Amino acid sequence: MLEIDLSSPVPVYDQIKAGLKGLVSKGQLRPGDEAPSIRGLAASLKVNPNTVARAYRELSIEGFLNSQRGGVSLIADQAVQVAAGGLGDARAAFADAARRARRSGLSWDDIQRTVATLLVEEP
Amino acid sequence: MLEIDLSSPVPVYDQIKAGLKGLVSKGQLRPGDEAPSIRGLAASLKVNPNTVARAYRELSIEGFLNSQRGGVSLIADQAVQVAAGGLGDARAAFADAARRARRSGLSWDDIQRTVATLLVEEP
Amino acid sequence: MLEIDLSSPVPVYDQIKAGLKGLVSKGQLRPGDEAPSIRGLAASLKVNPNTVARAYRELSIEGFLNSQRGGVSLIADQAVQVAAGGLGDARAAFADAARRARRSGLSWDDIQRTVATLLVEEP
Amino acid sequence: MLEIDLSSPVPVYDQIKAGLKGLVSKGQLRPGDEAPSIRGLAASLKVNPNTVARAYRELSIEGFLNSQRGGVSLIADQAVQVAAGGLGDARAAFADAARRARRSGLSWDDIQRTVATLLVEEP
DNA sequence: GTGGTCTAGACCACC
DNA sequence: GTGGTCTAGACCACA
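Predict the joint structure of the above. Result:
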């Protein structure tokens, strides 16, 4: 359901948060749907439950999830708006990486070419 | 001379290493030139000298810098080749960020648009 | 510096958050001051460092603390305002306990008497 | 009949226990009376029946309730004494909240004022 | 079974 | 030394 890159400098819990927001942005998850259980997601991502729990806790604080004790976690009604805000973050993070790539000597052509390559690999 | 993003999850010393390699890739720094002094660079980046020292130490191990007693570090003769190798890293890191942006719900169009925007801002 | 009640149903990290806000409200800690170190506070409270870390992390998100990697945590400039907001929470939590005591059959007289007693013990 | 605060850190079943003891302390429920049915109370409190069942089970152990096969629970003869003992708990919990409010920076005046306000709202 | 809290202890990045 | 992240595993409250 989600993909995590353990070797990335981006914290796993941030990747999980971004991933869930992405699923909502893309419509694969809708307000009112059940979010994956903390334990189940942790198992499928091969990650410690505490790490997923931290992501869920922060998402609850942000109003993206409604977590109930003893119950399932539901995608909040406002999740779409929250996720839309998250898109700005993703965009900024991406732009930042692009800028850093430039500083490393990659030309804009290189960058565009890389994007194009990815587009072919994962359409 | 270099730009550092303290709020990025990418370690500062890695950003410094990438930045110096970039300067060589782009020809703004050539083998035989003096690298900026650790203290001076640390001051201009508003970063702890130890952090710059770590970057320089690792660059020396990689054969990118020749650090001499007395404090002056010179860009090594093989620096261009080392920097060229670093380009692969930069490209990979960038591709990774693009992939993550996709997972967050950004469309390829969004990404291309962001690249285009950056291109206008920092040609 | 702070007092924690491990037998209370209120989570320890919340007590720590409230305690720090209280120190600022009472002027014993001011914006710009160094907050106690996570490890040091954990040791003095005989609590796990992770528990204190969680409190500090949330306080940073709330804008009450400025935490820097490798450095000390500073009381933020806006801490007084944030702490003032926290007073409302404390008041609400207290009022809630008073209400619950009433439901348990305590009369208002009992409650006032208890407050008066505490006032004598800890002026 | 009872009031429950789901957002309180105090366990719901403890609130239910305290609430029933309170009804007896205040004389609204007397030894020999039928306690509300588990299902009915759960429905009116919008709480899981298991939660109410747990409260009743513990109250039976404490000798406050006589639960009989067939489902009817009766207020025990010794309930008044048990409830009186519970007052001490309520008092202690309340005193604890007051102490914590103090640590959060509330002055005794604030606290007394809050008590006075509550007295006006719920005489 | 679920989420929430806490402990114990590890490694990392940084000062 | 500091804060930040993560793991492993415990107990609790609840459905």
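Chain D has two domains: 12-79, 86-121.
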